[in-house]
């Protein structure tokens, strides 16, 4: 009956890893004062009748530590890409030279760095909530199995497994946040 219950910990772990991956993607979009092609990932451009990521409209390069360039493939898209970057809230003023858009990355001031660390902490809290929700899903599966006759010892074992996995991923979120905040505050 319930003796053959086995929680799919691999699935739970995979889902928690996706929460960490999503956090890293969000962190990559935070500007730290250094140029990075990934900072343009959230920027979408109205192109060919649909919203398209910038990196699908041109080649994104980082030729210098404080410069990102986009070599737009379609000359007609240059102004749309430029407008999308201006409207994205990245705080970057694009400069156009033919089909190449140059994005000089300005130095971050202390106040902006502090704001970015708060944004990073907010992203990390969302990741923690996602991990805790997955923990709750696992615990619900265990409760359901308990009501179907799973022994008390097995319940304790599986609850311990889920809690240990949750603690490990929460710690990973905290470590990722710490390193990102240190990167942001580094002058």
From TrEMBL:
- State the Gene3D superfamilies in the record: 3.30.1360.40, Ribosome-recycling factor
This protein's record includes keyword Cytoplasm: yes
Question: Which Gene Ontology terms cover its molecular function?
Answer: ribosomal large subunit binding
Cytoplasm in keyword set: yes
The record, for InterPro entries, names: Ribosome_recyc_fac, Ribosome_recyc_fac_dom, RRF_sf
Annotated Pfam families: RRF (PF01765)
User: Single Gene Ontology BP term?
Assistant: cytoplasmic translational termination
Cite the NCBIfam families for this sequence: frr (TIGR00496)
Primary role: Responsible for the release of ribosomes from messenger RNA at the termination of protein biosynthesis. May increase the efficiency of translation by recycling ribosomes from one round of translation to another.
In Swiss-Prot or TrEMBL terms, this protein is called: Ribosome-recycling factor
Question: What UniProt keywords apply to this chain's record, in alphabetical order?
Answer: Cytoplasm, Protein biosynthesis
Looking at the record, the residues that make up the Ribosome recycling factor domain are 23-185
Q: Which organism is it from?
A: Rubellimicrobium mesophilum DSM 19309
